[in-house]
Every structure is written in C-alpha cells, then in structure tokens.
Specification:
The protein is mostly helical. It has four helices and no strands. The protein is 44% helix and 0% strand. Helix 1 runs parallel beside helix 2. It is elongated, with a radius of gyration of 24 Å. The termini are far apart.
Length: 111
C-alpha cells in the first residue's frame, strides 16, 4: 500500500509478499531460550520472518540432545516397528531399540 502525500508526510510501503510469514510466539520464545543458553544475541530483524528465524534456530541449537537416551528410538517408532514385526512374524533386532536411525532403516526395509 502506498500513501500519497503532498505535505511532506512519509510514504509508507507495505509488503504484499505472500511468502513472508511472521514468526509465531512459540518460535520467538524458543529462539530467545536458545540465545540465553548459548549467550548469543538474537538479532531483532530475524524475529519478523518465520523462515529467517527457523534458519537462525537451526544454526544455533545444540547438536547433541544432552540426554543419554536422545539417540534411542521413539515410542512411536517402537510401536510401529512392533506392529510391522507382528504382521511379518519376525523380531525387531535389539540394537534397533538403542538407535533411532537403525530403527528407521529397519522400518523402511520391512514395510
């Protein structure tokens, strides 16, 4: 939207770009939490665009989960794998329960 002016008032431009979506409050709170924990400043211009904030979060979040169980298969993965195993009448290998990547591969190969 452009506002015409004759008496030296500023001209305002609003973006009609449908691809720019504002960040949600949860995203902003999560980014602030990451910034506090990592002792990094959260840029103000990043919080206005959901895509840019997602990229900032992805670049600054910790790679390790912090928990010794973070690499374990999720309960949903285990339930789905056990359902497949019952249908196919075979066992899920024990090592798959300790590694989510192995569990995912086992599920993909036994669907």
């Amino acid at each position: 939207m452009q506002q015409a002016s004759t008496d030296q008032t500023p001209v305002l431009f609003c973006s009609n770009d449908y691809r720019v979506v504002p960040a949600t409050e949860k995203q902003i709170d999560f980014a602030r939490h990451i910034a506090l924990r990592a002792d990094v400043e959260l840029p103000a211009d990043v919080t206005s665009d959901r895509r840019r904030l997602f990229q900032w979060i992805d670049a600054h979040k910790e790679v390790s989960g912090g928990s010794p169980f973070s690499s374990y298969a999720s309960s949903r993965q285990v339930a789905f794998a056990e359902r497949i195993a019952r249908i196919k009448r075979r066992d899920v290998p024990r090592e798959c329960f300790r590694d989510r990547t192995l569990m995912s591969r086992w599920i993909d190969s036994n669907r």
